[in-house]
Amino acid sequence: MYIDVSNLPRQCQLENGKTMKKTIVLSHPKLAESAVQSFLLEGLNWLDAGVNIIKLDQKLLRSTLSLAEQRELILNSAEVFLQFPLYWYSAPASLAQWQEELFTDKFVHDLQEKNKVQPATLAAVISMADKSADFGAGARIGRTISELLSPFQAFAEKVGFSYRKPFIIEQFNYQTPKQQERTLIEYLMYIADADASFEQRSEWLLAQLTKIEQTANSAILRDYLQQQLDEYRLLDATLGEIKNDRE
């Protein structure tokens, strides 16, 4: 189950921050109106591992988390996800404000020293109204997504984080329910670090199927997970046959 740290007592936030390994920094000026963000947040309940969530825009309005508490969360995270919609090819203003307030020279130094011993990762989860095919040289938008997100890669290198390939969600509101289910599964795999290989994906899908069967949850989701698992196994077997033929 995910943990929304903005709603926890401050003492509990600090204690959980020392034990949790992933933190999502969510920046969205109209979070309650966002179908994709609501869908993703609800989906995080399926993850076995706890995930800290800092909702920046709510934090700015309610000031429930001190800067010291947020720094404690970041310092004790093995992976930090910056999750936001791409507005005018950039992140919402609250994310830039958060970076400016939180990452003082002293905190950057603390992160650099910590990452020398226990390297952490920075990742980005981006939702956008455009298609990925619209980006790049010769396309409608003459810049790649990687170019637009390069300031975050530079930021990661500055504080000693490794930088992970971003997870892109395109045109969520135009996706069919089946496509949205696939988006959610791939997002959860990304957050769980279970997307690096066919074997990892298959193991993760099988674990989720087992959990659903034990808790008698949604038959629709179970069937979809089973379908995805079968597809990954078939593709893995096909690729194995091609490799053997070439050898």
From TrEMBL:
It holds the Pfam family Flavodoxin_2. Residues 20-180 form the Flavodoxin-like fold domain. GO terms for molecular function: electron transfer activity; FMN binding; NAD(P)H dehydrogenase (quinone) activity. InterPro entries: Flavodoxin_fold (IPR003680), Flavoprotein-like_sf (IPR029039), KefG/KefF (IPR046980). Keywords: Oxidoreductase. Gene3D superfamilies: 3.40.50.360. This is Flavodoxin-like fold domain-containing protein.
